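Assemble and predict.
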Amino acid sequence: MTIKLPAVAFRNIFRNLRRSILSAVAIAVSAMSIMALLALLECMETDMAKNLTSFYTGQIRIRNVDYEKYERYNPLHLSVDIASVLPVAESVDGVKAATPRINFPASLYLNEKNNGVLGVGIDFTKDAAFIDFDKLVTEGRIPNAGANEMLMGSILAHELALGVGDKVTMLTTTATRGTNAMTFKITGIASFPVGALSSTTVYVPLDRAQYLLRMEGQAQEILLLTKDGYKEADVAKDVKQALLSQLSLETETKQWKDLNTIYSFLVIAKFIYYIIGAIFFVLGSTVIINTTMMVIYERMREIGTMGALGMQGKELTKLFLLEGSFISIAGSTLGTLIGVGIVFTLSKVGLNFTEVMSGVDMEISSILYPTVNWFTALFVWIYAIIISSLSTLIPSRKASKIEIVEALRYV
Amino acid sequence: MSMIKIEKVSRNYKTGETVVKALKEVSLEVDAGEFLSIAGPSGSGKTTLLNLIGCIDGIDSGEIYINDQPISGMDKTQKTTFRRNNLGFIFQTYNLIPVLSAYENVSFVLSLLDIPADEIKRRTYEVLKEVGLEGMENRRPAKLSGGQQQRIAIARALVKNPQIILADEPTANLDSKTGEEILKLMKKMNEKHGTTFIFSTHDKMVMEYASRLVLLHDGSIVSDERRQ
């Protein structure tokens, strides 16, 4: 059997096994960290997208065209008419579900004290496509339409010492700038994935909210979900156009990504993270660069011999590059597998951010369950191999430039 | 016609401000099949001359022709290709690749050439048998004695049937008995294959084996003696 360069390179790894292992471990640590952190970032992105589209903006949000301009004044009078807008929106190709909502600031009057909350008037039947209340309700039941019933966030209920069956009076400013109050019976307690929802929000039937706010037949916003395979931006454009052509109604109709700057930052952060990842790998690769340089100095006479025997400079470079690449492959494989193991474990036990996220106004769940994405794993594995192998190329090229006569004299 | 023609070759080395004249306008002609010893004390220019003939060092002035081909005009790649195809090397410290077995050290040289695998195998086994290492093909250098390692080095130099084998003090690291055995082996290969051997030495016993003895002193040839 004829010996080939890769076989020589492979055997060379074992000449100083401890050093080779050290180099591989440095790459493995980099690959493992990037794998775990990318999975976490991906999980945060997915989680945030799910929370935003479920609890906040849907995939497309329709509002009165002037609402944004006066948003800071809570202009509930700048509403959309449900009876005319909803059927048109639902009829647009690509729209899967639609639901009207009213978000309003309110106070719960308890023990001679007002407690600020965020009220949300929703149609529990239509909203089922957006929020799976059955899974979120930990005690009691969902309020019935037409009844003065309320679903309260679990943290809020705990803080106010309220439970199922208790009655509470809600005060608010109406759409006509008057004040109104209504007493609701708490029929259910819900634990939402986003801490802010559990600690500040109460859900009431849409018709009761309309009555309380003097908004009969109106909604502050209509949220839409799109069918699979449809681009949200395109559907939003079609809906806006349909409302304009069929109802002569100018609206603010936007896809969710345009409405949530934090999500956009997260997407940018992901891109930045890839760059940071590359730097991380380069740092990890400094060990292998150092190792290759040491190996070259140690094997100087061997390089001279191989050159004298007729090995071309590029073959010498290839020999050391292969050696570095084998170590890189071993390190990357080990690191990626450990990273996958960590992510897999976290997907079962979860990563609890409840304390860290308390007081942080971000639509990210308190407990995250990152999942193993095999595409990310493959990407990190290849990414680590390429960067660490390219790092080896720098010292490996030195081998081809060494003067044979000098190398043979080297002691 | 001479196989190697050295014409007024000079080589200087700079050590800081000092210029050492390793070779001073040396001229020499070597015929095919010669068993030539370049002798002289340390620093006389033996290794420098071998390195220049072996295309692993550059000439400052003069010219070396091998088979009428001037070597000073060759670039690094051409010199490497030339060495790969035409020259064999034997080193004082054997310079074997430690991770390769005896068989692999020898066959590795052939794998650099465009030779079919079965031909590599046949030639490697044949040459290892010739140098007396039959049965030790799978041993790595660390498991072999100095004499056995130098035999591998000789086999490695011979296996590609080069026109010229250059040996820099091939017996200097061996005891006198083993050194003599190595010289006998080299002589045998020289006679059997007609390969030109040029080796440097400062050992009188080694000089005795040479069919031609060139004596260098301070970078100049001081005698050139042919023997029967």
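The mean pLDDT of chain B is 92.
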